[in-house]
Amino acid sequence: MENKRSWKDYLLLHGALFLYSTGSIYSKTAAGKEFLSLGFCLFYGLMLLNLFVYAILWQQILKRFPLTIAFANKAVTIVWGIVWGSLIFQETITWRMLLGAVVIILGVLVVVTDHE
User: Fold this and answer.
1) What distance in Å separates the CA atoms of residue 98 and residue 79, rounded to the nearest whole number?
2) Nearest Cα to 13, choosing from 62, 80, 78?
3) What is the pLDDT of residue 89?
4) What does the alpha-carbon distance between residue 79 and residue 83 come to, in Å, rounded to a whole number?
5) Which pLDDT score, from 0 to 100, does residue 104 have?
6) Does residue 93 contact residue 82 with C-beta atoms inside 8 Å?
7) What is the dihedral of CA 45, 46, 52, 55, to 10 degrees?
8) Could you state, in chain order, the average pLDDT of each consecutive group of 10 residues for the chain (116 residues)?
9) 43 within 8 A of 33, measured Cβ to Cβ
10) Torsion (CA) 27, 53, 18, 78 in degrees, nearest 10
11) Which among 25, 52, 84, 86 is least buried, having the fewest CB atoms inside 10 angstroms?
12) What is the DSSP string of 19-58?
C-alpha cells in the first residue's frame, strides 16, 4: 500500500465518520419516542440506513488506509457527539469534555504522523 494518501482519501474518511456520528442523533431521537410509534420507526429506520451506508464507506476506507489509522481517526466521532449533544439536544459542554476532545485529537495526530 502506498504511503501517500490524497486529501480526497482523508475527506472520504472524515465524511464517513461525520455520517457515522449522525447515527447517534437518530438513535437518541428514536429513544425519546414511544416504542413502535411512527416517529420511533422513522428515526430507527434512519439510523439503520445510516449504518448501512457507513458500512459500505468503511470498506472503501479500509482499502485506502491501514487499520490503525482508520480506527485512530474513528475516535473523532466522540468530538462530533459532543457537538451534536450541544447543538441539537442542548446538553452542556464541560471543561472535562473539552479536555477529552483535545486529548482525542492529539492522539489521532500522534498515530497518524507516527505511522506515516
Assistant:
1) 9
2) 62
3) 92
4) 6
5) 84
6) yes
7) -140
8) 73 92 92 94 96 94 87 85 91 92 86 68
9) yes
10) 50
11) 52
12) HHHHHHHHHHHHHTSPTTSHHHHHHHHHHHHHHHHHHHHH
